Amino acid sequence: AQSVTQPDIHITVSEGASLELRCNYSYGATPYLFWYVQSPGQGLQLLLKYFSGDTLVQGIKGFEAEFKRSQSSFNLRKPSVHWSDAAEYFCAVFNAGNNRKLIWGLGTSLAVNP
Amino acid sequence: GAGVSQSPSNKVTEKGKDVELRCDPISGHTALYWYRQRLGQGLEFLIYFQGNSAPDKSGLPSDRFSAERTGESVSTLTIQRTQQEDSAVYLCASSMTSGVSYEQYFGPGTRLTVT
Lengths: 114, 115
Fold this sequence. Notes:
The complex is a heterodimer of chains A (114) and B (115). With 114 residues, chain A is mainly beta. Helices cover 0% and strands 54% of the residues of chain A. Chain A contains no helices and twelve strands. In chain A, the strands form three sheets. In chain A, strands 2, 5, 6, 10, 11 and 12 form a six-stranded mixed sheet that branches. In chain A, strands 3-9-8-7 form a four-stranded antiparallel sheet, with no helix packed on it. In chain B, β5 and β6 form a beta hairpin. In chain B, 0% of the residues lie in helices and 50% in strands. Chain B contains no helices and eleven strands. The A-B interface holds A 4, 32, 36, 41-46, 49, 51, 90, 92, 94, 96, 98-107 and B 3-4, 33, 40-45, 48, 55-56, 58-59, 91, 93, 98-101, 103-104, 106-109.
């Protein structure tokens, strides 16, 4: 069965430090992968997505993610975190079969220390 | 342009009552999705519409849950005889169509509390 695992429930980093949020997926075919961010009191916003091609994808707000098929991973990175990046981050894989739905990880809560 | 809107933003109801949650998708979006997000949990798929039909209702947790969509626009999610475990944020999303390349745009959600 398809699944997404985000091993880190909560991460705290200092402002200006680098960030990596982990995401592992289980999917039988070529995965379509997404990262969403949910800021307090706001809706979910798409950060970036991977469908095919270049395995390093760039997103909004300075985020990037790298698809590694051998590791079944799609980790999210940012070189220098800003206080406004504090939010909940969700990784998801799209089920391109009949169900056509996003399968979500449980999320990683990011706190940023000044 | 206007994004996805949901109403009410908050709903407190007594156990056993029925509730209706509303979603207004982005104009022209033919696909509409409902998700449930329990406290500290990821998103749980409930149902999706392509146009007015619902090809996949597999996520509806019980027969107390139903959803409809009319005019390829507004959708309502109805929960009958609410239970405390129904307490969650209910999120709606829409996309141009149901293909993978079409981004899902999310509404702010309806926070349902069943007392």
